[in-house]
What we know:
Blueprint: E1 11-15, H1 20-36, E2 41-46, E3 62-65, H2 71-84, E4 89-92, H3 97-105, E5 110-113, E6 129-130, H4 140-151, H5 166-175, E7 183-187, H6 199-213, E8 216-220, H7 226-235, E9 240-242, H8 249-257, E10 261-265, H9 268-275, E11 280-284, H10 289-292, E12 302-303, H11 321-324, H12 328-338
Parallel strand pairs: 1-2, 1-4, 2-3, 4-5, 5-6, 7-8, 7-10, 8-9, 10-11, 11-12
Amino acid sequence: MAPQPKFAAQRILIVLHGSIGDVTRALPLLGLLRAGYPKAFIAWSVEPASAPLLEGNPLLDEVIRFERGQWWKSFAGFLQRIRRGKFDLVLDLQRHLKSGVISWASGAPRRLGFHRRDGKEGNWLFNNLTIPRYGDAISKLEHYLKFAEFLGLPKAPLRWDFCLTDGEQAAVDDHLSTVIQPFAVLFLATRWESKDWFADQIAACADMVRREHGLGVVLLGGASERALAGRVLALAQPGVVSLAGATSLREAIGIIAKAKLAVGPDTGLMHIAAALKVPVISLWGATDPARTGPHGFAELAIKGQAPCSPCYRKHCTIGRQCMRSITTAAIAAKIDRIYQPGASEPVRHAECG
């Protein structure tokens, strides 16, 4: 008989409104929760930007969206909605003041959060259970999994469930109709200017991938990266297709799932690629891959060089020297490592498991 969780629970709420990368890294915890509480009602409170990652997930019973725009008007009603859920167990994965208030407002008798020295903004005041302190000694994904360990949930293989509809799959095929096959995806930019690479670097990487490996190249990013994509296309040789701002997040997932490899800075799409077992060469400067690197591909991380790296600042005052120091040759060496003789093709996660 499988071991029973430490606490009985019939209605469970996960609170994580965070970035695409954070929500992606927390998805394996959902799988462990469902295995430990097969009959429980499980909901996830999330903001709209990351909500598409949870759509259609067979392990979730409800996605509760918090509309961040004009939150001062909607927050009270949102908290009432949380209270009506009558949850008996809350997992506060956000560690900020807002998530602590949401956890407390649920009225759940058991509210589990991070250790006070791992939290921020007094988050620990709103929860009555905490996992042990780990600091930055483990990755974010491992930190989320410590919640399962605290609850006494049985260990199991990590799983991600990105369940695309037939219509979304058709849209993916349409987006890729003019792309040279097989192909690589290059991630254009991040939410932090300090973490971005440069247009000429992206173009040089694209040309190297086309020339040395015969792969098509797809540029992926949001609408705000269209101008950057235009500069890359102007510098690169033919064979590069920009889909910046042309896809939904879920369509981007489908595109990444079909790629042979991915290259780019510390962004949410990088974590999606890793979740799908697409080899991802990640580029680092302002942040540290030891804490936030893509799961399973630590050996493919490239750290730029600068006296202040990692600085954890959103904006750089020295021209992103760390990112500028990353060479096309360094990226090429990582790609050669992926395709060296005897290297096996990575086992892909199912898009809906």
